[in-house]
Amino acid sequence: MKKSIQVKIHCFSCMISISFCIHYFLHLVFPFFIALCFFRKEYIKVYLIFLASMLVDLDHLFANPVFDPNRCSIGFHPLHSIYAIIIYVLMLFLPKPYRIVAIALLFHMFTDSFDWFLHLRGL
Ligand SMILES: [Zn+2]
User: Fold this and answer.
1) Taking the domains of the chain in order of start, what are their residue ranges?
2) How far apart are CA 106 and CA 44, in angstroms?
């Protein structure tokens, strides 16, 4: 049986992994630049909507265990399911505040997916 070896790369010479840094950069910092670039007139409001979109992670509270580093949230938790993602895509066709919420939620799903991709790569 072939056994895969995963090496976690850490940054800042501490125990924080690269994927952890990328994950929270995409959740907390990158949305600021999205808001600034694409919604310049109301970038603070849009940034706050992006931050509020992280409330979808409250669906993790229904899981047991609540946090499992070896579990992909996409497709597992109700607000991260394919049905929820389809609703988020349909929300793109609604007027502005809802469209921005949809963009924020879809970006959240992208971030969680990318995090899982990095996890599978051992990063
Ligand atoms: Zn999430």
Assistant:
1) 12-120
2) 19
